[in-house]
Amino acid sequence: MLIKTYDQTGAELSQTSLSAEVFGVKMNLDLVHQVAVSQMANRRQISAHTKGRGEVSGGGKKPWRQKGTGRARHGSTRSPIWRHGGVVFGPTKERVFEQKINKQMRRKALLMVLSEKAKDSFLILLDKLNLESPKTKLMKVILSKLPIKGSCLFALPAMDKNIILSTRNLTGIETVQAKDLNVLDLLNSKYLLMSKDSIKVIQETFSGKSEARSTKYETNSNDQNSKSKTIKNL
């Protein structure tokens, strides 16, 4: 797949070839939905919390004696049926909404969304972007010259303080490191802006080649162990 490459002035320089392993994955909506829902659940913050009868203050003394008063028997003023007592079956902070998704599923869904961004021309590629100092006004001018009309996610090849500070006050612009890309952030932004260096980071992080190398090494080591055992037996 070929994609246009721009410079900081918005001029088209050339076309860059994208790897089919990363930007040519067929879409599976069910998998992308499952991963997105799990990420939203994992980011959920629990704020509602009610206290049970064992957490509210007071209630250490029996209100009145067990018998002889003509009133109903009670052991504590912190009972749920009393005013200012504990809450029964209320929301607590102990609730867990996390959902586990396998690493391969997360990676596959991410590659699917990246492929759709590139296929629908929502992937904007820069040759490079360098800012000598954090300037929001300068960053706004650079973005205005690019074919971006809507929210945008800026994938950085590495931590760049000048770019992060220049974009944090711009509405609809978010920054993230390329190694930390995820399905939810991509779906929340219409455009994906990155440099050529970011593509290299994405391929190294999510293509799975490193795992293939480690698997190959483990296989070779197992073969060597088996050979050594055979020699010892002889």
How does this structure look, described?
The chain has 234 residues and is an alpha/beta fold. It folds into two domains: 2-43 and 107-210, Ribosomal protein L4/L1 (Ribosomal Protein L4, Chain: A), CATH 3.40.1370.10; 45-96, no CATH class. The protein has eight helices and six strands. It has a six-stranded mixed beta sheet. A hairpin with a 5-residue loop joins strand 1 (2-6) and strand 2 (12-17).
Number of helices: 8
Number of strands: 6
Distance between the termini: 56 Å
- Name of the CATH architecture of the largest domain: 3-Layer(aba) Sandwich
Strand order of the largest sheet: 2-1-3-6-4-5
CATH class of the largest domain: Alpha Beta
Biggest sheet character: 6 strands, mixed
Structural class: alpha/beta
Flag low-confidence runs: 210-219, 229-234
CA-based shape: elongated
Helix content: 25-40%
Provide the residue-averaged pLDDT.
Answer: 87
The portion of residues forming beta strands comes to: 5-15%
Topology as H/E string? Answer: EEHHHEHEHEHEHH
Question: What is the H level of CATH, i.e. the homologous superfamily of the largest domain?
Answer: Ribosomal protein L4/L1
What do we call the CATH topology of the largest domain? Ribosomal Protein L4, Chain: A
- What number of domains? 2
Return Rg in Å.
29 Å
List strands and helices in order, with pairings.
Blueprint lengths: L1 E5 L5 E6 L2 H4 L5 H14 L60 H17 L3 E4 L9 H9 L7 E5 L4 H7 L5 E5 L5 H6 L2 E5 H11 L2 H25 L1
Parallel strand pairs: 1-3, 3-6, 4-5, 4-6
Antiparallel strand pairs: 1-2
